[in-house]
Design a protein that fits this description.
The structure holds two protein chains of two kinds. Chain A has 14 helices and eight strands. Chain A is of the alpha/beta class. By secondary structure, chain B is mostly helical. Classes of the chains: A alpha/beta, B mainly alpha. At the A-B interface, helix 1, helix 2, helix 3, helix 5 and helix 10 of A face helix 4, helix 7, helix 8, helix 9 and helix 10 of B.
């Protein structure tokens, strides 16, 4: 199975742990990741500025993958939503498609609507499948009590077609079970990280992050797992600052799902970029609990 | 090609404004009628808990045509785009989409764009991405970047001029 890896902006410019663990783990599961030149921002973070910009940028990126005849793997939920929503609009509205294609003509691109778009969660759970993942597990995660965080854009709006259910997402939890962990429900599961507020209200963004993580910590979870570079930046890199906004000393190990899968596959922590996580992941990865 | 071309109320933006206006008018005519102010949107709103955004009131104001008042208000910029209001509305009204349209209108009307949106936009215009490659520090205090990790060259627009041409068309063409 072949996919164009659409990296977006945040993952390839700073959230290297996500990218490195994806490039390490997915090929082992039979996924060939193809790098394509020329991608740009998906436009989703700029939707508040100009929605037409979002639509056109996404169409442009899809067209680049279509030119190579490839489906798209977008590990960032925000990118995945922008691309999926643009596809939905352009596939159903020929007038809009013609208009957007006029923008793309200078770069010799044309949106056709031939590529499918997947995210980490549905690629792992629906396309690759739990059985295949199970086959590769060498060192199961020893019943780590894990809080899974899907991120808003991974599950909403369902009308666009999202990787998992909007109110009761559980694909990531099923994957965590298969690799030996013990994901448990917590009532803040669907709460937002606040990441987009970094644009204009960064203090409030930190408070959102701190509130959720504080609650997770109080409930005795061993680790927190996410699948979004925006969310991860909040919960991992900004964890200490986020804690300060809610008067809590946070020390919650935060992983990308692909890092935990890699650990269960017996891949070295270095190859999974665990030294890039700013949260205390060594509590888990070294001791194995 | 500057940010102003893409955002402000220059001559070229008349058409953009007209289109956003039509979008808002449509939302006002078709969507706001369905809202019966149950406030389920507000009860789940992520920004409500922290920043007092009340999506059901946004719809109520839209219904009354108080669009300029909202465009001029800072509260429209507190939405976190979590999409819970759109997901949970029993009447399929989507306050988050109204908020996007209102913010787009604020930008097209030449209002000051809050915070770092301008920086993001500027970065997309110049390199195609929200931000450029950063150096990061590992736990053991090593400074590293993509190349040190053996990651391939970053994917970004290969011909910045053509890419900018596309964006400038977006700004001036009758979209």
């Amino acid at each position: 199975m072949k996919y164009a890896l659409y990296p977006g902006c945040v993952m390839p410019t700073e959230q290297y742990a996500y990218e490195i663990s994806i490039r390490e783990v997915l090929p082992k599961l039979g996924v060939e990741l193809i790098d394509i030149e020329g991608f740009s921002c998906c436009g989703e973070p700029l939707k508040s500025v100009n929605q037409m910009l979002t639509l056109s940028l996404s169409a442009r990126n899809i067209a680049l993958a279509e030119k190579e005849g490839l489906d798209i793997f977008a590990p960032c939920p925000m990118c995945h939503l922008a691309l999926s929503e643009s596809k939905r609009i352009l596939d159903s509205d020929p007038v809009m498609r013609e208009r957007v294609n006029k923008f793309l003509v200078d770069e010799n691109l044309v949106y056709k609507g031939t590529s499918n778009i997947v995210h980490t969660v549905d690629l792992l759970h629906d396309v690759i499948g739990l059985e295949k993942i199970k086959e590769l597990v060498k060192t199961p995660l020893k019943e780590l009590k894990i809080a899974s965080h899907y991120g808003c854009h991974t599950i909403r709006p369902s009308e666009i077609g999202r990787p998992d259910d909007s109110e009761n997402p559980e694909k990531m939890d099923r994957i965590l079970e298969i690799i030996g962990a013990k994901p448990e429900f917590y009532s803040e599961k669907l709460d937002c990280c606040g990441g987009l507020l970094n644009a204009n209200l960064p203090e409030s963004a930190l408070t959102k992050t701190g509130q959720k993580l504080k609650s997770v910590q109080e409930q005795g979870f061993d680790a927190f797992v996410d699948v979004c570079p925006w969310c991860h930046r909040q919960y991992d890199a900004k964890q200490t600052k986020a804690g300060e906004t809610v008067a809590a000393k946070l020390d919650m190990p935060v992983f990308y799902l692909t890092q935990l899968i890699g650990l269960a596959f017996g891949i070295s922590s270095e190859k999974l970029g665990l030294n890039l996580n700013q949260s205390p992941v060594e509590k888990i990865s070294v001791r194995g609990k | 090609m500057t940010i102003t071309d893409l955002t402000s109320m220059g001559e070229s933006q008349t058409q953009v404004k007209k289109e956003i206006n039509e979008r808002l008018k449509k939302l006002q005519d078709e969507i706001s009628e369905y809202c019966y102010q149950c406030a389920k949107c507000t009860s789940g709103c992520e920004a409500h808990k922290l920043l007092e955004l009340e999506p059901h009131k946004i719809i109520a104001l839209l219904k009354r045509g108080l669009i300029d008042e909202m465009v001029n208000s800072e509260v429209i910029w507190t939405c976190m785009s979590c999409f819970k209001c759109r997901e949970r509305c029993p009447q399929r009204v989507a306050p988050v989409e109204v908020l996007f349209a209102l913010k787009n209108m604020a930008v097209a009307s030449g209002k000051q764009i809050p915070g770092n949106y301008t920086g993001w936009l500027q970065s997309v215009l110049s390199i195609g991405l929200l931000q450029d490659i950063k150096n990061v520090t590992t736990k053991d205090n090593k400074t590293i970047t993509r190349s040190t990790l053996g990651l391939p060259e970053i994917s970004k627009p290969t011909d910045p001029n053509k890419f900018q041409m596309m964006l400038s068309k977006l700004a001036v063409e009758k979209i």
